[in-house]
Request: fold
Amino acid sequence: MTKEPKRLDLSLYLSREPVILAALTGLTVVLFLAVTGLSHLYDAQQESLAERWSSRGVNDLNAHHYKVAITEFRTALLYDRDNAAYQLSLAQALIGLKRTDEAYAYLINLWERQPENGVVSMELARIAVQKGQTDRALRFYHNAIYATWPGDQESERRKARLELIDYLLHINARTQAESELIALEANAGDDADQQTHLGDLFLRVQDYTRALAAYRASLKLKRQNPAARAGAGAAAFELGLYPEAEQDLRAAVEASPGDTASAALLKTTSFVEEMDPFRPRISSAERNRAVVSAFTAAGARVKACQAPAAKTAPAAATASPWQSLSQQWSNLEPQVTERGLRRDPDLENTAMNLAFQIERQAGASCGPTTDADKALLLIANLHQEN
Reply:
């Protein structure tokens, strides 16, 4: 009889234990949810503050207020320390203030984490260019070309390749620049302005055939395009396609009277067309007039070159090459007339060969060349082997 109360107490405890455990579990869950909620609320607040400071930083970065932007991005990173976008923006603001070493530290860390990021690779390439680190610059430029970009990837990759080409031209790496241009050519597309720009770049690397093709593609897409017309004229001129060059250059000058470069090339091209007796589809009379004109221009050149030679070395003037060339020209002059050329067709080659020899011998040593002199050199290069 004395042990019964203890049994009752134990029974009562055992019956209440599940209720107590359930209550404690529920309290734990409530406290966990409360802590989680507070944590999410704190994180959301931190994220909101970071976004707010970053937004201010972006506005100041775009307005070139770099010093203020640096403070704002640093503040944003206090609330979101590992945010790659904030770190990149901070690096760009540091670059704006020419604090390149600080920017590089952020960028190289980002590149190690995100080597496929095109923006990061481009910034690293530009820093390498500033430091004269050509190999690193090329490496990062190529990373950027094949990287992932936000927005229009093809457009951004094209811009990266164009910047690389400009850099290669700047350091006179013309062969590498041409290789990049050929890769760019494959993706130029049906855009007249892009084709014109491509032609301009091919002109700079002296790939005149590809330059002319790009200008022709541009004109096919947009006929009224003075820049492409001028470029086509310049490329055709360099290729020795003078009739084609004259047509394009004339159209370019008519469309843009202020285009002095095209006007100068057109003038020289017109002299070539006028003085070249070997051009196709001309009459015998036109050919004879061209020979007389070329021979007369060469005579003026040899006289201009002989005078300074005599002044600088009077005693040796008689032995100078100009004395010999002058004598040959003087001996031939009475025969080189339109009538004389009609009587002796072989005289044409003799007269033109002497004219070419005089112009090649003269070079730039006899003072400024006339348009006729330039034209004769071009005709010589066009019809005679070097």
Notes: The chain has a mean pLDDT of 86. The chain has 18 helices and no strands. The CA atoms of residues 353 and 380 lie 8 Å apart.
